[in-house]
Amino acid sequence: MSNLQSPTVLSPGVLIPVNPAIEDYMRSLLNLTDHPALLEMEASAQKNNFPIVGRLVGVFLETMAKTVNAQRVFEFGSGYGYSAYWFAKAVGPTGQVICSEADLLNKEKAEQYLGSADLWDRIDFRTGMAQDIFAQTDGLFDICYNDVDKGDYPEIWLMAKDRVRPGGLYIADNVLWHGRVAVELYEDMFPGWTEAIIEHNQLIFNDPDFDAFINPTRDGVIVARRKAA
Domains in the chain and their CATH numbers? Predict the structure, then answer.
């Protein structure tokens, strides 16, 4: 008899990929000095039900960025700078994180948070549609990070994949979409979003120029490494 437990079911078509007890254990292993700005961002997200990647994924993003010695990161969808906090830590004082966000108020919040953490000088925070900002930005990136509206995921992948330098990473959040990608019957939050995420994931795993893997932590984070020439 197997000792493996079935995944926890929240409601029809929604799954928790990783048992919450496992994630609690993983968080207990993190020996971090919590910066007040980080705690403020997390408290604000909890109070206002604002979606952020959370501590475990944040540390994962920082680790991935350090692994490829990232110096130039582009974020599709930055909110008020939570994921940028982790990328900015990773790129160091000589690196740059280009953020894109439609809401000007979120830019003001990001400047407050990341400024107090002494990371704002590593941030180029631009407001507007992420796709437009990316199209107006030249060059290759060590990391392209995608966290926009999920219906746009296939479009973002197709835009970004050729702008990731060889050996660099494309990373996207929410690629398990609360387990909806793995079940036949589900109730989507917005029409077409689950189908878009499924298409996005298939495009990446079928691309011969990339090696890809999904970390199931929280809501699933895909990491695709562009193969060296």
Answer: 8-28+38-226 (3.40.50.150)
pTM, two decimal places: 0.92
What is the spatial distance between Cα 72 and Cα 55, in angstroms, rounded to a whole number?
A: 22
Count other Cβ atoms within 10 Å, centred on residue 140. Answer: 14
pLDDT digits over 157-186, tens only? 999 999 999 999 999 999 999 999 998 888
C-alpha neighbours within 13 Å on the C-beta side of residue 74: 26
Residue among 79, 216, 82 at smallest CA distance from 148: 79
For 40-49, which contacts have Cβ atoms below 8 Å and span 24 or more sequence positions? 40/113, 41/80, 41/81, 41/82, 41/85, 41/113, 42/82, 44/80, 44/109, 45/82
pLDDT for the residue 11:
53
Q: How far is CA 192 from the centre of its chain?
A: 20
Q: What is the pLDDT of residues 61-120, one digit of tens each?
A: 999 999 999 999 999 999 999 999 999 999 999 999 999 999 999 999 999 999 999 999
Give the pairing type, strands 8-11 and 14-16. Answer: antiparallel
Give, as one character, the DSSP assignment of residue 13: T
Torsion of CA 80, 180, 197, 202, to 10 degrees: 140
